[in-house]
Specification:
Length: 211
């Protein structure tokens, strides 16, 4: 009962009706299946294409963060190597510049992560709303009483036969062909994957999606 409640809560958070995945749960008992929704979405042609487009969209912000890191490192190097020869005014100027760039790096990184997460969640919702139909149809046609999201509910044991992610991806791609499939696209924005400055560590990205 606890597992079923957790699954329903997940579906409500995703903005879709629980009945789409709890196909034929009332009545005679039938088979139970598992699907990793996140993996399924990112494995579809549409999901791969959408992630590639997100990476392209956030590439300029990655470059901005990279440039800020380089500037911060350059100032740190100057202070360390020339600290004894710099005037007090020059040291104060460099330290002010360093502090400003560190603050800008932190803000830019956090903003990029938040914006990316919002875009990614919208992509997941959009694809899931369509994928739910394939899951519902597959469950009804193959005698499943319950299909559980294995990426959200702890699963301690499951036979290989109950894993339906690959089948659902194939059904989704057949129903929703994508004309620019891109594979191997990271699930986190490139803009947030950059080395931290040596003296002021920027805030860690909030949600290394994980997609």
């Amino acid at each position: 009962m606890k597992t079923r409640v957790s699954t329903i809560t997940l579906l409500l958070c995703l903005g879709t009706a629980p009945s789409l995945l709890l196909a034929q749960s009332v009545g005679a008992p039938g088979k139970i299946g598992l699907i990793n929704i996140q993996e399924a979405i990112l494995s579809t042609g549409e999901g791969k294409k959408a992630m590639a487009e997100l990476q392209k969209k956030y590439s300029p912000r990655q470059q901005e963060v990279t440039k800020l890191n380089q500037d911060i490192q350059a100032i740190n190097d100057q202070l360390q190597k020339q600290g004894t020869t710099l005037s007090d005014d020059e040291q104060r100027r460099l330290n002010r510049d360093l502090e400003e760039k560190q603050k800008l790096l932190k803000r830019s990184t956090e903003d990029a992560q938040a914006d990316f997460n919002a875009d990614r969640e919208e992509m997941f919702r959009r694809i899931f709303q369509k994928m739910a139909k394939q899951i519902d149809d597959y469950a009804r046609q193959n005698g499943f009483s319950l299909i559980i999201g294995s990426d959200q509910v702890p699963i301690y044991y499951a036979a290989k036969e109950v894993e339906l992610t690959e089948q659902i991806v194939k059904l989704y791609d057949a129903a929703n062909p994508s004309d620019a499939v891109t594979s191997g696209v990271p699930a986190t924005p490139a803009a947030t994957r950059s080395p931290a400055p040596s003296t002021a560590k920027p805030a860690k990205p909030a949600d290394q999606p994980k997609p």
